[in-house]
Amino acid sequence: MLDDRFRGQLSAKTIKEFWPMAAAGPPPSVRMLPAEPGVYRFRTAAGRALYIGRAIDLRRRVGSYWRDLRDRPHLSRMVAQVGRIEAVACDSGHEAAWLERNLLEREMPYWNRTPGGAEVPVYIRLDQRVGLRAVRSPDTVAGSRLFGPYLGGLKVRLALSALERLIPIAYAASKLSGSERDLARVRGVEQSDRAALMDAAMAVLERDPAAVAAVRTELVRRRDCASADLGFELAGQLQAELEAIEWIVSEQKATRTDTRDLVVHGWADGLLVRFEMRAGRLSTWTQRRCSEPTARDRVAATAPEWQSFATRNAALAARLHHVQR
Question: Is the pLDDT at 8 greater than 50, yes or no?
Answer without folding.
Answer: no
